[in-house]
Amino acid sequence: MRFLKTPVEALKEHLPSLRHVWAIEDAWEMGNESPPEPHFVEIDAQTDLVALPYSSGTTGLPKGVMLSHYNLIANIRQLLNTGLTNAYSVYLDFLPFFHIYGMTVLMNGGFTNGATQVIMPRFDTQLCLDLIQRYKVTNLFVVPPALLAMANFPEPGKFDTSSLEFIVSGAAPLPPEVAQRAQRSYDCKILQGYGLTETSAVSNVNPLNRVKPTSVGPPIADTVEKVVSLEDDRELGAGETGELLIHGPQIMRGYWNRPEDTAETITQDGWLRTGDIARFDEEGYVYIVDRKKELIKYKGYQVPPAELEALLMEHPAVADVAVIPKPDVDGGEIPKAFVVLRATEQATEEEIMQFVADRVAPYKKVRELEFVETIPKSLAGKILRRELVDRERAKGEG
C-alpha cells in the first residue's frame, strides 16, 4: 500500500499555521545535527502570552485563559510578598502543574525562591504523611478533598508532622468543620486562600499572624477588590453580599477566541467579574458565599449550595457531600444533596435532612437526599456539579 501523502505532509496541509513538524523517527537524526544559531525574539511582556490554561468548567465548558508574562511574574512577586514561602521552605507538590494553582504557587513560586520541592505523582494520604515525616515538609498547599482525606485519616499521630508550619487550602470552599478537625490532628495553622485561573492563581490569602478560619483573607499586594450589587452593580459596603470584582496586574488578557465572554467578564475599566458571591468584613477580609451561577433559586429565594455543604459536613456520619439544584414544579428548583457516608457510621436520609432543617431558614432546607459512593470532582478539588445535574436530568428523561 502506498500513501499519496506522508502523515507529516498531511498534518502541515491540515494545520498550515505550523512552522515546523518533525516525525518521531527523525529524532535520532536530529540529535546528531549541529544546533542552529540562536535566534532571539523580542517580546512584549505586557501583551505576549506565556500560558493558556483552561478554566475548570465545573458548570459549563472550559475556556482558554490568556495569561501574559507580566501576569505570571506579577503574581509570583505578589505571592512571595505574602511571606508564606522562602528559600528554606520545603513543599510537598501533588497538585497538577498544568492547573494554575500548581503552576504558579508550587512550580513557579518554588523555582523563584529556591525552595525544596518534593513531588508526588498523585495524592495518597498515607504516602503524603510519610513524605511529610521523611522530608520535614514545612509548607503544604492543598485542595479541600485532600485536607478532608487527611482529617479523616485514622491515627495521624503515627507520623511525625511537626515540621508543618501551615496548610493552605484553595481552589474550592473549605468547610469549617474540616478545617477544625485537620487543625486538631496536625497542630498547625490551617488557612484559606482564593484565586482564579483568570487571576493567574492568587488574589487573596490569610496572613499567618492573623488567620480568620472562615475567610479567604484580604487582597494580596497591588490588588484592589470590591463587592457590587447583583441587580445594578452598585458598590456595597462591609457585611453586604454581592459579586466580587478584582483589579490588579495578575488579571488575564481575556479568553482565547471568545471576545463576547471576555467582554462579559472584564469591565471596560479593567475589573474582573469573578462570578463569586462574597462579602467583606470591617478589616477587608473576604468571605466567599458561593458561585453566582450555582445559586439555587427556590420560590424566589437564593440558596447557596456551599453553605448547605458546609453544614452537612458537620454531621458526624457524613464524609463528603455535594448539593445541586433539582428542577421542581412548585419551587422552580429545590436543593438536592448527594452524601457519602463515613465507613464506620450510619444514618438515614431523614435524619440528615432533619439535621440541616434544624439549623437553617425553612427555604434553605435540603428537600431531597441521595447516598452515593463518591462525589465527582476536578483535579483541583472542585465539585463537578454539572455531572450531577446531568445525571439527574438523565434520570428524569429515563
Describe this protein's structure.
The structure is a single chain. The chain has 398 residues and is α/β, with parallel strands linked by helices. The protein folds into 2 domains: 49-292, ANL, N-terminal domain (Rossmann fold, 3-Layer(aba) Sandwich); 295-397, ANL, C-terminal domain (GMP Synthetase, Chain A, domain 3), CATH 3.30.300.30. The protein is built from 11 helices and 18 strands. The chain has helices at residues 7-14, 27-31, 69-81, 100-113, 125-135, 144-152, 176-186, 259-265, 305-312, 349-357, 385-397; strands spanning 49-51, 65-68, 90-93, 116-119, 139-142, 166-169, 189-194, 204-205, 224-228, 242-247, 254-255, 272-280, 286-291, 296-298, 301-303, 318-328, 332-341, 368-371. The chain has a 4-stranded mixed β-sheet with strand order 5-6-7-8. It has a 4-stranded antiparallel β-sheet with strand order 9-10-12-13. Helix 6 links the parallel strand 5 and strand 6 (166-169). The termini are far apart. 37% of the residues are buried. The model has no long low-confidence stretch (mean pLDDT 88).
